[in-house]
Structures
1.
Amino acid sequence: MELRLPGLAPSDTSRIYAARGSKNHLATFHNNNQSGTDNITATEYPVPVPTPPKMTTDPLDTFTSLPLTLDPTSKSLSSPLPDLTTPLANLTQLQRSLLSTPSQTPPPPSSTNPKRSAQIAKMRDQGNASLRKSSSPASAQEAVTLYTYGLEMALTRPAWEPVQLVREECALLYSNRAQAYMGAQMWPEAAADAVCSVECKRTGNAKAWWRRGKCLCEMGRWKEAGEWVESGLEVEGEKEGGKEREELVGLRKEIVRYLDEERRREGR
């Protein structure tokens, strides 16, 4: 098929035009300008039409509203549809049989067990009394035993009891047991317990931060102690009041003095 289009100046040797026909055909137009006129040849190619995918209906996606009525007195279901009479009667019978069966399920437990809380507090208080009684290693070991009993009771609380309660109890018991280990000069054990206390309660626990820092100093790990104390001051807040924070600041000054003296000795 040739078309003559007047008014087009011959410039290019050839031009290719493409268009889609009205009947899903692709028409290619070739323009040859060698003769000074535009002779356009159109060639049509059939284009396959894609077949749309078949849509499947999931029965779960279909919602059908059924006319149901609940009797407020007997709590039985009914419907005007005959096909639902038997299923609803069976459902009502099942409901009544379940209600008439005595329940063997115990009542839900309370949020916390006050007896366990009292026992944990008793073990903690007795451990504190042992530490105050004497500074001997024997008293420290006795306190370690009492704090360990308290930790076992706190860590074995039922799963339904509040987690925050367990964390608070363990933070205090681990910190106190760290102090007892320090009294027995068991520095690695004390440092480990102080870390456990900090993991349970990071803020408001300056004693545990101080105790691990002191243990690291006693073990000769001064640089690590300085990093630990700096982390504790970042968490606790250096400028806020409190005796425990002041002790933490004092420990940092002690560590800085020791490291400075060590640098001067190395410089000599």
2.
Amino acid sequence: MAGLLNAVVAWLLTTLFFQTFAIELDIDSPDSIRAAAKTVAHGLQSIYNGNQTGGTLGKFPYPPYYWWESGAAWGGMVNYWHYTGDDTWASVTQEALVSQLSETNDFMEPAERFDLGNDDQAFWALAAMSAAEYSFPAPPAPHPDWLTICANVFNDYVSRWNTSTCGGGLKWQIYPENNGYTYKNAISNGGFFQLGARLARATGNQSYVEWVNKVYDWSTTIGLVDSNYNVYDGTDETINCTQVNHMQWSYNVAMFLYGSAVMSNYTNGSDLWTTRTTGFLNAAKTFFSPFSNATDIMFEAACETQGTCNTDQFSQKAYMSRWLASTAVLAPYTAGQVGELLRTSAKGAAASCSGGADGTQCGSRWYINGFDGSTGLGQQMSAMEVMYTLLVNSTKPPAVISGNENVG
């Protein structure tokens, strides 16, 4: 009985501590949103050691963070800069992105050969694409501009489109010695699709549109995207892609959602791309409302309620938030639904950011009204992004970049 009493007292003290030090967020106050997002961004940057002795420039510490997640985090920081107007980490973000460009200016870093897949490259490229669209400080000479870098990656993908099996598709892995070389997955092909859509809108180059349609059609024909716009993890060329792994992850549908929204905007709201955008938005709701008393709160459906998410998966709510908000900008007919999902999720995220010595480290489960003991880069990134996206109504849309129509 004494043990039970002690446990209850400990729980009460812990709860009171977290409530005292949790991040305060007024979802209707831009100043409060900026302050909360900055606190979380500071926690994210405290994990980065790439500009310190023993670290690698541009990379968050590995282990546990693979190279792709570093690129994803810097993409989040570019968006943070754009949404909030806070340039505190602009220089370190630019330095990090440039550090991983490689000699070929396409994020094909030789040191990452052991874990460099098409999807990994995509997250760095999409960070650079945001930098191009938002006029983020350009890379220093002799590097080309952000848009050219993205075109380089796109051309890499074109050269890797593999028609020897499955009628096309990008493999997950680039190098034959890496596990997963025969797997053709949604996130790699979705990355190709979204990058192409954004390049098409930015430049007006029709060749990008042709590839966007090709990748989308292949993804639906193979079954990575079904008739209800659910997006499944992947398939394998060893069986000629005749069966699909039906695991669903939030970043897959979010990737296709934003690519479709970009195309909806580019085609002036065509019925085809509007229908697809709406379909993916509806499918994305798989990743909201984990329980009846947690309506509209985001969660990673395949692992979060079971407590089985790994380091990579903790970050995936960041991309859902990022691309939901971006979708609302370019496809305004989605804004009402998107806004409610982000506002409710942001409140839950703020409540989760009550851990650590300073009481502001963020957890992973946003529906428990508190900190769940889980911390890391993915948790910080996810909370930061769902917070800054609340500024979506006052942010400028991605630019159409004239003078680059022949890139690609």
